[in-house]
Design goal:
InterPro entries: Aromatic_deC, PyrdxlP-dep_de-COase, PyrdxlP-dep_Trfase, PyrdxlP-dep_Trfase_major, PyrdxlP-dep_Trfase_small. Its cofactor is pyridoxal 5'-phosphate. This is Aminotransferase class V-fold PLP-dependent enzyme. Belongs to the group II decarboxylase family. There is one protein chain. By secondary structure, the chain is of the alpha/beta class. The protein folds into two domains: 263 residues, 3-Layer(aba) Sandwich (Aspartate Aminotransferase, domain 2), CATH 3.40.640; 95 residues, Aspartate Aminotransferase, domain 1 (Alpha-Beta Complex). Helix content is 44%, strand content 13%. It is built from 14 helices and eleven strands. A hairpin with a 2-residue loop joins strand 10 and strand 11. Helix 13 packs across helix 14. The longest helix has 35 residues. It is globular, with a radius of gyration of 25 Å. The model has no long low-confidence stretch (mean pLDDT 96).
Length: 483
């Protein structure tokens, strides 16, 4: 038989050299990222001019390809781990988890079933149990699964709720969530085929929390009309403001009404490790299912979400399929096949990075980092309240703060204030010195800072405010000329 030379391999020495180059680049990035710019800007035309080409028939030197990627790809991607990346939800990450990901990918471990990789399945069981304990879920009866992110965890939760509460007929099923719930929940509901008429968006109160009274009225009305309330989605740390819904009251309603209680804690759930966060999360342990996102405030690299459930059997009864080609690898009931607990059959070994980073740093360092983030946001709020130029629109809540430029000696209209603050954000982002974008609260355009990076300092914040003030003065001059 003819020898095959198309093995897609480098020599051992070439692999080492290539690996060292990559490690050197990653270490340099982690050690110096605070000196770099967090924002990447580029139009489609600019990116096409750099990368658009036909797939090459012949290969080229691996180091040449790597250098091109380091020079053109990595420099044209936003750095969400940068200390001045304040927008959306930053991804602070940590080096140990990065290397763990490299190990998991390098060994190409399949983390779907026990038979393929018992150690990988066991580490997922162990780390899920750590999280069950942190959130007060039943350790023996409870369970969970790591997902690509909060979107997939929320989808998995709603699928499970529908299966357990509705069976095969969900034609009259109704689901409830607030107007501050994350968009991934709406996406999950639509993906599952629910009609618009089956979704209830409950208005929030003046503190942007789930309105309990309005919810009760809506449930009662739906029952009178012959509909079937089956699921409620609360939020433990909204993306906009960090607000935590009244979890205790919502849990009682769900228990009384026999409604599946899902809590989306993708952003704020990890705050439970801090003293202030633990107070805010009271009632989270009553959820039937809970989404948390380790690639947010548990400082893991992308992608890593997680769904916890009070009863692990609810996952297996929802997702288990028995194709013929898997008949010989089922194992016993204690040997969990995670492809039976979620949507994916082929799964990467996500648990390893969480396991290795927690083992390396310890839970205390994670707790201290989260506490620092919450305290930093409150310090920023104090600074803003002491300024004649800034207005706190929504107070610091779980490391998120919303504010706007609104000097007390000026009488700008709401329209002018919207224009000023939008201008400030656009100019800051254009400068690439900080990632600071707007959101809308109570119809106002406001600036929002999410301060969950443990390497962000007060100096990072104050220098960003200096930049904001510079651009505020620019737009004020333009407005003055028009008067």
């Amino acid at each position: 038989m003819k020898q095959n030379n198309a093995r897609l391999e480098l020599s051992k020495e070439e692999m080492k050299n290539y690996g060292y180059q990559i490690i050197d680049a990653i270490v340099e990035h982690h050690a110096t990222q605070h000196e770099k710019l967090p924002v990447a800007l580029g139009s489609r035309e600019e990116m096409d001019s750099l990368f658009l080409e036909e797939a090459p028939e012949q290969g080229m030197d691996s180091s040449e390809v790597l250098n091109f990627v380091l020079d053109k790809v990595m420099t044209n991607s936003a750095n969400m781990a940068h200390p001045r990346s304040f927008s959306f939800v930053p991804g602070p990450s940590n080096y140990v988890s990065v290397m763990a990901d490299a190990l998991a990918t390098g060994y190409n471990i399949f983390s779907g079933g026990w038979a393929a990789s018992p150690a990988a399945a066991e580490l997922e069981i162990v780390t899920i149990q750590w999280l069950l304990k942190i959130f007060g879920f039943p350790k023996k009866k409870g369970g969970g699964i790591f997902t690509s992110g909060g979107s997939m965890a929320n989808l998995t939760a709603v699928v499970t709720a529908r299966r357990i509460k509705c069976g095969d007929d969900f034609s009259k099923a109704v689901i409830y969530l607030s107007d501050q719930a994350h968009s991934s929940n709406i996406k999950a509901i639509r993906v599952l085929g629910f009609k618009k008429e089956q979704i209830r968006i409950i208005p929030t109160d003046s503190e942007l929390k789930f309105s309990v009274n309005k919810l009760k009225n809506c449930i009662a009305k739906d029952r009178l009309e012959g509909l079937y309330p089956f699921c409620l989605i609360a939020t433990a740390g909204t993306t906009n403001t960090g607000t935590v819904d009244p979890l205790v009251e919502l849990g009682k309603i769900c228990k009384k009404e026999d409604i599946w209680f899902h809590i989306d804690g993708a952003y704020g759930g990890a705050a439970i490790l801090s003293q202030k966060g633990k107070q805010a999360m009271k009632g989270i342990e009553k959820a039937d299912s809970l989404t948390v996102d380790p690639h947010k405030w548990f400082f893991q690299p992308y992608e890593m979400g997680c769904l916890l459930v009070r009863n692990h059997k609810n996952l297996s009864s929802t997702f288990t399929e028995k194709p013929e080609y898997l008949r010989d690898i089922e194992g016993n009931t204690s040997e969990i096949n995670f492809y039976d607990h979620g949507i994916q059959l082929t799964r990467r070994f996500r648990a390893l990075k969480f396991y290795m980073s927690l083992k390396t740093f310890g839970l205390k360092e994670f707790r201290d980092a989260i506490t620092y983030n919450i305290d930093l946001a409150e310090e920023v709020e104090t600074m803003l309240r002491g300024s004649k130029s800034w207005e706190v629109v929504f107070p610091a809540t779980l490391a998120v703060i919303n504010f706007r430029y609104n000097p007390i000696n000026k009488k700008y209209s709401e329209k002018e204030l919207d224009k000023i603050n939008q201008y400030i954000s656009a100019k800051v982002v254009d400068s690439r010195k900080a990632l600071l974008v707007t959101t809308i609260l109570n119809g106002q355009i406001v600036l929002r800072m999410c301060l969950i990076n443990p390497r962000t300092t007060m100096e990072d914040v104050t220098e960003t405010f200096d930049l904001c003030k510079k651009y505020a003065l620019e737009i004020e001059e333009e407005l003055a000329k028009k008067v």
